[in-house]
Specification:
By secondary structure, this protein is α/β, with parallel strands linked by helices. The protein has helices at 23-29, 33-43, 71-85, 89-98, 105-116, 128-141, 147-166, 176-188, 203-214, 227-237, 247-253, 270-279, 317-324, 331-350, 352-377, 379-406, 412-422; strands spanning 10-17, 48-56, 59-66, 100-103, 195-199, 219-223, 240-241, 256-259, 287-291, 308-311. The two termini are 16 Å apart.
Length: 452
């Protein structure tokens, strides 16, 4: 089990996602990228020592490593994080009602499944791994990641890469953008004579545009806040670039509008769109609006106008479910990879006390060897020689620790005594620090999990 009550630390995850919260609720608690800079430093409090925020179109999740465990400290950490997430009391109360709270083992398995594409609205979502990687990188840049979350996310990202390369879970259409294009084709039967407007040329908009072209669309208009990105995509698709200022006019002429920008407010306004459609004589023509953004970019009232069909992330879910059927056969293989990587994660955590105890002895021996060899051969030779000697000396003790753990024996007391004997400054609670020695796949490290 991952530590949830080891007396010192606890791994928790607070989440609002599509499974239990509709698009309006997710939108309400979405953390915009612009806010992360001010939010990250404030989140390190209330017993939280490490933190990563994962924010995508379908979820906002806070992964935290807390300094205390037990019911009361858990409530303190949750209340603290929720207070930073949503400072206004009414919003904070609503957030606490809407969120899922995971602890310990459930957190590790959830992240591994998330990175693998098993927790996505689109099974095998090809974008989620990159989103998790980007979130982890941002947290690293904010200096809120320590040894626990470094290890957790490294194993999560490795799991995602293995699932993508070793299974068929990510084959076929597996992104929101591609599914939106498929919905457009289903609606019109043919896209050959349909004018398609893409607003926002990030990853989602780009995938939608490319899929539209593959499905036969030839009249593709592209808009983006940075016009250079739209121009580059237009050249590859033989499309046309339009300035963002003409958004409502271009939408009035379009048959399909797909929007996925990073805007924090509505970009396509209902009354302005309706007026533009009246002005160009298209107010009775069918118009399909697909809002793939979080927060939503299209005013929901726009879907009430005659001839207009508005599909957001929630209403896109049904055709996605049907498309996912083809990838269901790959789920068992993906689950096996998740199970294998979970064994690695559990074993790394279980051997934390052993690594820390061995580290104390390691440091003491290296220091002794370095000084003695340096006396004879100089500092450069001493450094290399000391590490080689000590690595060979400690290979067997580490294996003994690991084998004992594999048999279910408790080595915490022995580890504590070794720490007291050899650490230059004895540490309180050796189970609290899992960073002492790097995880490798070599047997000498004692980190080959049972049945790996």
């Amino acid at each position: 089990m991952l530590p949830s009550d080891n007396g010192d630390h606890m791994l928790i995850c607070l989440a609002v996602d599509y499974r239990t919260a509709d698009v309006a609720t997710r939108e309400r608690f979405h953390v915009a990228e612009q806010r992360l800079g001010e939010m990250y430093p404030a989140l390190l409090g209330g017993g939280v020592s490490e933190l990563v925020v994962v924010s995508t179109c379908n979820r906002t999740e806070l992964y935290a490593w807390t300094q205390n465990s037990g019911q009361e400290p858990l409530e303190i950490a949750v209340e603290y994080l929720a207070g930073v997430w949503m400072p206004e009391p009414t919003h904070r109360h609503a957030l606490l009602q809407a969120m899922n709270i995971r602890i310990g083992d459930d957190v590790g398995r959830h992240l591994l499944r998330l990175a693998a594409g098993l927790e996505s609205q689109i099974l095998g979502d090809g974008q989620i791994l990159g989103q998790v990687r980007s979130s982890y990188r941002t947290a690293c840049e904010m200096n809120t990641v320590g040894p626990m979350l470094h290890r957790l996310f490294e194993i999560g990202l490795r799991t995602g890469r293995r699932v993508q390369s070793d299974t068929n879970l990510s084959t076929g259409r597996n992104s929101v953008g591609a599914e939106a294009a498929a919905v457009a084709l289903h609606r019109f039967g043919s896209l050959q004579h349909a004018r398609c407007l893409i607003i926002g040329c990030g990853k989602t908009g780009t995938r939608a545009a490319r899929q539209l072209a593959k499905l036969g669309a030839v009249d593709i208009v592209l808009m983006n806040r940075t016009i250079e990105r739209a121009q580059e995509l237009a050249e590859s698709l033989r499309g046309r670039v339009a300035p963002i200022e003409t958004l409502h006019l271009e939408a009035a002429f379009a048959d399909v509008v797909i929007i996925a920008t990073g805007a924090a407010t509505h970009t396509l306004i209902a009354d302005q769109l309706q007026q533009a459609r009246v002005n160009v004589g298209n107010d009775m023509a069918p118009l399909l609006l697909l809002d793939l953004a979080m927060p939503r970019n299209i005013d929901p009232i726009a879907g009430h106008a005659h001839g207009v069909t508005l599909i957001d992330l929630d209403s896109l879910h049904q055709p996605i479910v049907a498309a996912a059927e083809a990838r269901l056969s790959a789920v068992p293989d993906a689950e096996r990879i998740v199970d294998h990587e979970m064994r690695w994660l559990r074993h790394w955590l279980a051997t934390g006390a052993a690594r820390l105890a061995i580290r104390s002895l390691h440091d003491a021996l290296v220091d002794l060897c370095r000084r003695e060899v340096a006396f004879v051969a100089g500092d450069n030779v001493a450094e290399r020689t000391a590490e080689r000697i000590v690595a060979k000396l400690l290979a067997r003790p580490m294996n003994v620790f690991s084998d004992a753990i594999a048999r279910g024996e408790n080595v915490d007391d022995l580890a504590l005594h070794m720490d007291k004997l050899f650490a230059s400054t004895p540490r309180r609670g050796v189970r609290s620090d899992f960073s002492a020695m790097p995880m490798t796949r070599g047997r000498a490290s004692g980190l080959v999990p049972p049945n790996a």
